[in-house]
Queue: 2 jobs
Job 1
Amino acid sequence: MFLWGTATASYQIEGAVAEDGRGVSIWDTFTHEPGRVRGGDTGDVACDHYHRWPEDVALMSDLGVNSYRFSIAWPRIQPDGRGEANPAGLDFYDRLTDALCEKGIAAAATLFHWDLPQALEDEGGWLNRDTSYRFAEYAAIVADRLADRIPMWITLNEPFIHMVYGYALGNHAPGRALVLDALPAAHHQLLGHGLAVRELRARGAEKVLITNNCTPVWPASADPADLAAADAYDALHNRLFNDPVLLGTYPDLSAYGVSLDCVRDGDLDLIGTRLDGIGVNYYNPTRITAPTGEGLPFEDAGITGYPTTAFGWPVVPDGLRELLVGLKARYGDALPPVYVTENGCSQPDDVGPGGTVDDQARIAYLDGHIKAVEKAGAEGVDVRGYYVWSLLDNFEWAEGYNQRFGLVHVDFATGTRTPKASYHWLAQRISQD
Ligand code: GBH
């Protein structure tokens, strides 16, 4: 059965940051520092999903999805990132899981969507190898309680983005700007993934995946310097995260002055444990040119000539087909079934007369990308699911509430949910399947 779903993440929707024993996450700290997030927005209330979740489950049930990808907030489970579980935190996800089961919606739980307990960041966060072991301990606690009812587990969400934005550039929490010295955050996340896979499987988890953010890389020209730059970018963005989990090896980064000397014997065996699927988040391709100055071995050349989202990201539906077919070409039989665990766009989405949101651009976006998934299937890629980012307008990280990705409009002053035209379109599309 093909999985049709919507995706969300804990910090982006839950709010209730100080309730029921939840600990502080790096995003609580970051959003409360002046100048970090547009307009000073925080996730303190967000969509108030922590209280309004029954309404959100009902919205998904009416939409007709058969799966829901959400993330579990580590600081609700272990407020300080280690030790005893906080029962109230587990209870929240237990209730949500039961409600989904009741509606016939298969839960797909992500264990880490960037909201690290602050106590672990204080000890170095993902730069510290110990965090990988703490992550496995947390995974075990959650699986003990929920593996009997959650069929699909995703260890990490987009470790590339978390490493780059969180540790290399600093525009996301924890706000560190280490450039290439951020690389240990890649390995330690991946090691945490490998260790967590073992804990999840030992507790009967049916399917275990990782979700990587992948981008087709387009060289700006056929000039050898542009080709080399594009290859460097592909190595750091895509292969650095896909190769170890699918092949058990890291790409050779030595030409870029990068070495992963934090890798220890046995790590890659753990990281390369065969998975039941791979989650792929796709937003757009990346066009790369040779660097003009010192520093990084590539430069983003930007993409023109396509429509753009409210964020300014180019809309290239065929890039999703290209990406999926490219994964099959590179990994062959080592590629497990693929799940598109995020795809979607931000649009202005004003509520119009009569309380409707006529988001035709989002409908065109989804239609184009769903067709691209079908084409990839026809070209031999085993794609088993498609999740729209996102169910609700939500806290869009450094952009605060200024970028709306939802199928459902949220009035952040009142919490009122209004399904957009795209919601009704998708309901129709799913019902025809
Ligand atoms: C995902 O990250 C996250 O998992 C999710 O939490 C988030 O809300 C969602 O996407 C929307 O942002 O080449 O300049 O056009 C996506 C990471 C990084 C993908 C920026 C698109 C486009 C940059 N994104 N990238 S550009």
Job 2
Amino acid sequence: MLQLATSFGVLLAFVSFAAAQSAVWGQCGGIGWTGATTCVSGSVCTYQNDYYSQCLPSTASATSVGTSTTSGTTSTVATTSTSSAPASTANIGLNVAAKAAGKLYLGSATDNPELTDTAYVAILSDSTEFGQITPGNSMKWDATEPSQGTFSFAGGDTVVNLAKANGQLVRGHNCVWHNQLPSWVSSGNFNATALASIVETHCSTIVSHWKGQMYSWDVINEPFNDDGTWRTDVFYNTLNTTYVSIALKAARAADPAAKLYINDYNIEGSGAKATAMLNLVKQLQADGVPIDGVGFQGHFIVGALPSTIQANLEAFTALGIEVAITELDIRMTLPATDALLAQQKKDYQTVISACKAVTGCIGVTIWDYTDKYSWVPSTFSGQGAACPWDANLLRKPAYDGIVAGFQS
Ligand code: 9MR
């Protein structure tokens, strides 16, 4: 019996030694990690942030890892999740999963103030997780042309240079939008001729500046009201719908290689607003105006996804254009419970599966990957936890939902 127990102990020791090396893409270190700290042959344990080191293929590690290489310092961050739900268990990067499913990228929005956070940047820069970046604010009109004819590209340049260093695509966001519009445009009382020239100059100048460096541009952002009528902003009120073609033509002339998109929210499922967008695309095509894609923002609520996402995406790709999910996040009423996080995981999987099933759905962008920098809590009081990483930069079950969506 003693002999048996001893042998069993030896066996256990052997088993735990055999399991003491993490697989490729597996975790191999980080604060609180008690598992294996070495990697199987052909992969290297690579620091991602204080909470997470990962086994990356030896050949990929030199280029795919972020700039931060020091560990041991713990940054203090706000915690919005009170759940003890297990973190994600998937051992594959989101962008790796997206590409394996035939997509061009899985990406994240980012914003310039966040780029001083080295732990955040390390994950953002990991091209196994993110193959694409969208600047959340620094290419908008108020940032790029705060006064007429005075252009500022510094913030956008920073994001583009980071993406280049990481080997990531960039979605330009955006040329024409009613929001974050300087008052010299919105309250300038310009006549149609003057405003048309202002729109053309703005789009032409910013798209030219980043010529050859953009995968795509959201040339027009949020042109419709939720009932499918046109948003009565300064552009529509002055130029009727012609501002759309003015901007698209200016963008095409400025960078013929960039895919030109119109981007909106609440068009993810069928309905009046999606129909209005479909009709706009048909009209632009009939008029010979360049249009390459429609962006479906995807700002969803846990447990309340539209049921027609895939069919709706197909209605757009049937027109011969591509589609992308451009600003995905799925918010909940706080505090985050295990049940809400489990439903959120399902919802992420549902959205990703819909994109995966539609050949012309080329990629998905999360509207920042972490709850630490999500726009949601400051906009919707009492809501948040919308992203696949929590405020401590730990992966949530939603991460596994995304992987499952790509692998379904
Ligand atoms: O993420 C952006 C946030 O930092 C800004 O405060 C906000 C202001 O308008 O815009 C956010 O991004 C929006 C995007 O540009 C267009 N779709 C909705 C996004 C969330 O509001």
